[in-house]
C-alpha cells in the first residue's frame, strides 16, 4: 500500500511538472518529462493526449501564406482545444495563445450575409482570447438571424461569460414550454435582448451589417440611437423612438420598459406591464 501511494504521488508530480512546462512553452523539457511519465506509468490514460500537446507546442500553429484560408488553423483548434481544456484547465488559454494570435493575424472574416458558423465561432473566440470582445460579439451574434440553430449549438461553449451566461438566461425565458420550433423563432431576438442587459452590445455592429428585414433586426438597428437618447434625458425625440420600438414589437418593448426605462409620472405609458417575453 505504501508503495502504491508513493507511485501515485510520483505520477502526480510528473503530471504537474509536465503541465507547468506545457503552459510556459517549453516543449523540449515537457517532452523529457513525458518520456519519464511513459516509462514509470505506461498505463497512464492521458499519455496520448499529453503527447499531442507536446508535439503541437514543438511545431507551433500551422504556417499560412498571405491570403490563405484559415482552415488548417481552425482544424487544429477542433483537436487541441478540448484536450487542452481537459488537461490544462484554467491554464489552457495560455497554452493556446499562439494559435489564437495566429488566427487573428489571418484577419479572416465572413461577409455580413454569410453564416459560416465554424469561421464565426473560432475567429470570434480568437478575438475574445486576445482581448477584442467587441469584435468577438460582432462575429458571433449574426448567426442569431443567419443560422439560429447553429448559434443555439455554439452559445453554451462560447468563451465569453457575458454572452454565455446571458444566453442561458435568455434560453430559459424565451422557451418556457420546451418547444424547439418556437425557440428557434426567438433566437433572432437575442442580440437585441442582450443589448438591453449590456448596452455596449447595441453599438458593435456597423450600419450595413444588420438588415432591416424582420422585427428583431429592426429593433436591433433602432437600439443604438434610442439608448443614447435615454442617456440624455426626456425629449420629444426619445418619445418618438420609444414609440417606434413599441410599433415594431409590443412584447419586446415591455422588456425594454422593464430593463431600461425609468418612468416618472409625466412619461408613464398606459398599460405598463413589468413581465414580458422577448418575442414580438
Give your account of this protein's structure.
The chain has helices spanning 2-23, 27-40, 47-59, 71-88, 92-106, 117-129, 133-140, 143-146, 148-154, 161-174, 180-186, 190-197, 215-231, 236-248, 250-259. It has 15 helices and no strands. 65% of the residues lie in helices and 0% in strands. The protein has a domain at 1-41 and 49-58. Residues 1-7, 175-182 and 263-280 have low confidence and may be disordered. The protein is mainly alpha-helical and 280 residues long. The protein is elongated and about 75 Å long.
Overall shape: it is elongated
Residue stretches low in confidence (pLDDT < 50, at least 5 long) are 1-7, 175-182, 263-280
Based on secondary structure, the structural category is mainly alpha
Largest sheet: none
Question: What's the β-strand tally?
Answer: 0
Task: Supply the number of helical segments.
Answer: 15
Approximately what portion of the residues adopt beta-strand conformation? under 5%
User: Cα distance, first to last residue?
Assistant: 66 Å
Q: List SSEs in N-to-C order.
A: HHHHHHHHHHHHHHH
DSSP helix fraction: 55-70%
CA radius of gyration: 24 Å
Amino acid at each position: 500500500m505504501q508503495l502504491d501511494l508513493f507511485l501515485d504521488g510520483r505520477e502526480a508530480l510528473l503530471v504537474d511538472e509536465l503541465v507547468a512546462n506545457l503552459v510556459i512553452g517549453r516543449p523540449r523539457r515537457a517532452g523529457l518529462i513525458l518520456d519519464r511519465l511513459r516509462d514509470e506509468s505506461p498505463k497512464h490514460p492521458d499519455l496520448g493526449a499529453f503527447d499531442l500537446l507536446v508535439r503541437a507546442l514543438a511545431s507551433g500553429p500551422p504556417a499560412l501564406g498571405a491570403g490563405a484560408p484559415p482552415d488548417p488553423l481552425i482544424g487544429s483548434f477542433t483537436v487541441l482545444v478540448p484536450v487542452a481544456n481537459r488537461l490544462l484547465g484554467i491554464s489552457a488559454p495560455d497554452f493556446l495563445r499562439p494559435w489564437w494570435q495566429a488566427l487573428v493575424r489571418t484577419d479572416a472574416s465572413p461577409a455580413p450575409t454569410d453564416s459560416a458558423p465554424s469561421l464565426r465561432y473560432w475567429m470570434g473566440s480568437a478575438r475574445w482570447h486576445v482581448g477584442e470582445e467587441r469584435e468577438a460579439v460582432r462575429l458571433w451574434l449574426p448567426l442569431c438571424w443567419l443560422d439560429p440553430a447553429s448559434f443555439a449549438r455554439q452559445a453554451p461553449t462560447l468563451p465569453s461569460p457575458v454572452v454565455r451566461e446571458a444566453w442561458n438566461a435568455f434560453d430559459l425565458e424565451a422557451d418556457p414550454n420546451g418547444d424547439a420550433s418556437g425557440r428557434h423563432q426567438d433566437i433572432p431576438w437575442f442580440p437585441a435582448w442582450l443589448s438591453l442587459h449590456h448596452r455596449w452590445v447595441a453599438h458593435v455592429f456597423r450600419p450595413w451589417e444588420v438588415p432591416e428585414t424582420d422585427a428583431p433586426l429592426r429593433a436591433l438597428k433602432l437600439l443604438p440611437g434610442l439608448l443614447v437618447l435615454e442617456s440624455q434625458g426626456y425629449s420629444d425625440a426619445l418619445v418618438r423612438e420609444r414609440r417606434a420600438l413599441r410599433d415594431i414589437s409590443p412584447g419586446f418593448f415591455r422588456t425594454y420598459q422593464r430593463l431600461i426605462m425609468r418612468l416618472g409620472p409625466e412619461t408613464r405609458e398606459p398599460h405598463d406591464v413589468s413581465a414580458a417575453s422577448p418575442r414580438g
